[in-house]
Amino acid sequence: MNSLRPLRFFSLQESPRAMPTGTLPALDEPKAGRLNIQYAPDASCDVVENPPRFSWLPVIEAEAHYVLRVSTDPEFPKGKTQLFAPLPLNFFTPDAALAPGGYHWCYATCDASGAPTSAWSSVRSFIVADGLPETPLASRSERYAKADMAHPRLWLSPKLLKQFSKDVTKDPGHCAWDTFYETSVAPWMERDVMTEPAGYPNHERTAPIWRATYIACQELIYAIRHLAVGGKVTGDAAMIARAKEWLLEAASWNPAGATSRSYTDEWAFRVNLALAWGYDWLHDELTGEERDTVRAALLARTRETADHIIKHANIHLFPFDSHAVRAVSAVLVPSCIALLDEEDEARDWLDYSIEFLSTVYSPWGDSDGGWAEGPHYWMTGMAYLIDAANMIRSFAGIDLYKRPFFQATGDFPLYTKAPDTRRATFGDDSTMGDLPCLKIGYNLRQFAGVTGNGAYTWYYDEVKRNDAGTEMEFYNWGWWDFNFDEMVYQHDFGTVEATSPSELPVMRWFKGIGWVALQHKMDDPDAHIQFVMKSSPYGSISHSHGDQNAFCLAGFGEDLAIQSGYYVAFNSTMHQNWRRQTRSKNAILINGKGQYAGKDKAQAMRATGTITTCEDRGDHIYLQGDATEAYRSLSPEVSRVLRDVYFVNNSFFVIVDAVDAETPVSVDWLLHANAPMQLGANTFRYTGERAGFYGQFLWSEAGAPTLDQETGFPDVDPSEYEGLPVSTCLHATFPKAIRHRIATLLVPYSLKAPQRVFSFLDDQGYDCDLYFTDADERSFKVTVPKTFDVGR
């Protein structure tokens, strides 16, 4: 990255004289693909914050700079046009809100003075509505003007550190300091200083070495950060000396060795972060020579990650790289704050990071707050984002939380992974079937502090109660020390009282990612029903799976229709052959095939779905998903694949699947449960420990199904799930036809109060009418259009 400093923004009146457009070379302005950053804003999407976020595809020259013009007139006349230049990146957030109204924009490449060096781009238009959240970003020249450049800079400034030290001396329980000190600081005084990891035997990756070193590198953070914080807060010279021992040892490790990013990025991220905290908090305790040693190690490691993010992964062009995007928050922000104005590159990298988080973030969702990779990877991504956002807020006064995405995103785990569910949602999840991670709860409490939403605090309280004793599990201890998190949160935000989610709407549509979640009586386990369905424009990319038009169901304190399998490790046989595949979902197969879920990112991004309808109609909620493109990825003969879902009286489900094809195809209707089911000719029943469900195939235009079930994980290495429960899959196979219409009744119930839903059908004429009544004599009808030739 080759930025020009100081960055100047020209108004039209002071802008450099542009060369006549006709003398300038054409601008390279290619069409944006699914995997690329998009041209935005434009008339096809609503602007949700003011000022809007501008982005475009970069030209091929990495050193190029841009000039952006914005006007209320598409001719860009003098007096009505703002000019911003020179911009070193292909995305930009202005430093002031725009007046409500209609606007036009375009861009060109430019020289150091801001004069265009190419023809202008196509003109795009947008509207700024009145009342939008105002979220400008301070310009590069002003961004750090009020920052305290003394150390420490991460979390506490020297002034806040002095006050915090006074507060905990007066009251050791202040911000839970006493628990942090006793549990997360003092023990590291007795632990042997960690030596440099040896890496993999013969440099061949093995899961046990990966996990052990992963945890060891995380413990390196705990040792350095906590000893440094503990020593500085208390003034304990011995503790500061011990923190320096840990830090100087880590600084001696080979930045290009076993803990380099190119060897194993998760190890490298942790070492990088440990050095950043140590360099920042111990800066004034180090000799000049020691400071140079640590700074050189930190710079070398940060440069490797920055080069990967910016020059190799190119997340400003291809933003769908989970680890690279996460590393912006996890590595670049803390490391560059620690190094700012002590190494020239740090300012460029920090500006890139802040502008990425302020403009492009999050590539996995939009202002609805969804996260396409699922709630577990929302947890991971948000955990590091929260850390980075808090650091940026305390150091530079920039509040990322004002952006609409951050105001809404707490709803995503709240609705898609209730505190009493385990396997009733989508995406990779390393908890191996345990209840939601503690960190999801801590994240939700953070967003309670940001938004004042007491339902998020309720979620935190429930997860904390349910997960007591899991703090040392790999998926917790290998990532976070909650005593440190507790102290920081109490200091920075304080308590938001819990409120019951009982008043929240049952339905939440995360439209941008194609997820719908239904939560009925989430606060009452004996009556709770969770239903999640997805049909996503993100397809099966990254930690998403081949699960468009799939659903998951939990009820009455127990998972019912589950996502099958375990996320034992990325690229394991379980991951690639089962869990990512459609056959592990509550979905359909066509001619035995599901949706593309392989490693080709372009194909994965094309295997998409769409939630076309999501409506609360009073006595029922109606959803429709269109997964045609996802199934066409492996079955090009398919012309339509729809799934309609009716959630009736907050009680039972009617599911209608529609498949049209150019040649006859068979359909397998799949449903996964934790144990075998009782099967009839066209019925199935599952009985769990607290709840169960029964289902019935009410009508099939192509003919009756054949039902069977299989317990296990075909094509998966048994050693990967040794000792873990094995689930069962129901297969209902329907005869070949060019047109399928399959209507299914699914009734969840508590074992304390089993229920029946009675049904009959009338299939005379051009429709099949399905009638339902329950014990309270409430009636409901679903009409399925039919034909008289299914083309067998």
Description:
It is found in: Cell envelope. Its main location: other. Residues 61-434 form the Heparinase II N-terminal domain. InterPro entries: Chondroitin_lyas, Hepar_II_III_C, HepII_N, Ig-like_fold, Oligosacch_lyase. By secondary structure, the chain is an alpha+beta fold. It folds into 4 domains: 1-142, Sandwich (Immunoglobulin-like); 156-361, Glycosyltransferase (Alpha/alpha barrel), CATH 1.50.10; 365-505, Alpha/alpha barrel (Glycosyltransferase); 535-750, Beta-galactosidase, Chain A, domain 5. 30% of the residues lie in helices and 22% in strands. The chain contains 18 helices and 24 strands. The strands form 5 sheets. Strands 12, 13, 14, 15, 16, 17, 18, 19, 20 and 21 form a 10-stranded antiparallel β-sheet that branches. α6 (288-312) packs antiparallel against α7 and α7 (322-339) crosses α8. It is globular.
In a nutshell, what does this entry contain?
It holds the Pfam family DUF4962. This protein has 792 residues and is an alpha+beta fold. The protein is 30% helix and 22% strand.
